[in-house]
Prior knowledge:
The protein is mainly α. The protein has helices at 10-60, 74-77, 85-90, 93-105, 110-117, 124-134, 151-158, 174-185, 195-199, 212-243, 248-260, 265-279, 287-311, 315-323, 328-356, 360-364, 385-393, 398-429, and strands at 62-71, 142-148, 189-193. Strands 2-1-3 form a 3-stranded antiparallel beta sheet.
Amino acid sequence: MTRDNGLLSPEEAARLVAAKMAERNKSERRFRFLGRAAIAIALTFLVILMVSIFSKGIPGFFQHYVTLEVPLDREKLDPEGNLSVQSLYDGDARGTIRAALYAAVDASGRRDRKAAGKIISAGAEARLRRMIADNPRILGTTQEIRFAVDDDVDSFLRGFIKRETPQSERRIDDKMIGFIDQLAADGRISYELSDYLFFGSASRNAEMAGIYGAFIGSILTLSICLVLAFPVGVATAVYLEEIAPKNRITELIEININNLAAVPSVVFGILGLAIFIGVFGMPRSIPLVGGVVLSLMTLPTIIISSRAAIRAVPPSVRDAALGIGASKMQTIFHHVIPLAMPGMLTGTIIGMAQALGETAPLLMIGMVAFIVDVPGSVTDPGTVLPVQIFMWADFAERMFVQKTSAAIIVLLAFLVTMNAAAILIRKKLERRW
């Protein structure tokens, strides 16, 4: 009930305030619920993604091997007797391995031997030559040697190829399945951690493919990126924050730096293709060009984070240094930069982690090429982990699906390690005023 002067009575005012407060609390609870629901949905999708990657990736760290007793005849495997690379390649490594396999499964006829020969990976010969080169004393003896099975056999042993499927629709025939069962019954087939994945390089054969070459390529590419981007980024940030006059030119530079941070990474790849390869004629698919392109992409992130770290240094530090007679350069290099270094390093590592996961700019400069050899320097052809994952994802063999997920797990571990290092550096060097 209102009074004659139009004002609410105390009871009505109290009810109105209570209604408004109830509506406000209801809106707050609704907003809080929506926020929690959004977080729950995001976490759900993250869990689904991680479960999908790890469920496919963990088996990719393992593969099946067959153990054979191989007589290592010196004259057959090293015909020249000097253990040279050419002599080992001229030797009959393939025949030696197949003879051991035929003996293990009692393959006598031509058809049996043809079926048995498909069980072992094509990389078995290289493995035997490498063993002899590393330890020549095994020549003339009989050794138990593990060889990777072919990817089709591995798929069968994992259950992806069913024996109930008609033979005409399978990639392995009944004769091969019989030999596989015999080897398994004799305890010759084992499921072990894949040495090919960690120490192998690019290969069209899924069982021989590995990430070692791509991992070394990533290390070399990131090294070039760090050497170029960190000093240039820090120097630019120091100049803009501490030395450059505040005018339209520096404002234009700052706007362009902020805009470059939002430019799609593929644009930097096009820039590298046009300038470094097109104009300067640098070779394609080398870590040097990849590192330069990634450094251009990472520079805005490092500059922005370094400037923020410099601005976080209290003005009193500068005033105190100048007050006791330090020059402007001494103030910058002896006081400002050391105090801002934790933030600079954190931003640099985050930028490097971003560069590690980039694929598009490296595809533009040709690092998608099929490179079997491991790069020994920044001028040797190579590839990187994200590009290797991209290439494996395009292959049809079932085993590449698992190896792709395994490589993703390795890449995620690398990224988590770099981000954890950034956090530790900040905690260790950070000072509070």
